Amino acid sequence: APSQIERLSFQKQDASARPHTSDIRQQSCELPCKVAKFPENKTRNRYRDVSPFDHSRICLQLGPNDYINASLITAEEAQRKYILTQGPLPSTCGHFWEMVWEQRTRGVVMLNRVIEKGSIKCAQYWPQREEKDVIFEDTNFKVTLVSEDIKSYYTVRQLELENLSVSCSSRLSE
User: Fold this and answer.
1) What are 56-90's pLDDT values in tens digits?
2) Between 20 and 30 A from 71 (CA), which of 3, 22, 36, 89?
3) Where is region (Disordered) located (predicted)?
4) What is the DSSP string of 35-103?
5) What is the pLDDT of residues 17-57, one digit of tens each?
6) What domains are there in the chain, each with its CATH number?
7) Residue 95 CA: distances (Å) to CA of 12, 29, 65, 80, 102
């Protein structure tokens, strides 16, 4: 076990990293998130204080409202682009799948559980084994569970996403 001095030293190192965090916060305050605050979009946000920046937000193309709480980011080291999004609400699961379709997403990584410490963090946006498929009527997408491999610390699912408006489908991993 670390000694008291080692623990204090470790805590001091952590505290010295905070100015960098405050620099990021200050820079982010300078970037607008106005679209997320529009009255018609407030119900599409899980949290009041987590909004996509206007310059990097994903815009939906098919429906009457182009808003989803999601941002496109570039990881230069990996030479890839990623979409960061909130866990969908029950009313935004269809929008989530619309975004996945429009952005030609090949995989989804969920970093939380549906329920954590008794608090709902995300709606069940994929079909459970009993259901096999779910249709999101508001956006006309159907998601089918193709396979599920449950491990001790994670689960890998193969899903099929079908756009019922154009009778076309694609496969992805979650």
Assistant:
1) 999 999 888 999 999 999 989 988 999 999 999 99
2) 22
3) 1-25
4) GGGSTTTGGG-SSTT----TTTEEE-SSSS--EEEEEEEEETTTTEEEEEEPPPPTTTHHHHHHHHHHT
5) 555 555 545 555 678 899 999 999 999 999 989 999 999 99
6) 31-105+112-163 (3.90.190.10)
7) 44, 27, 10, 23, 10
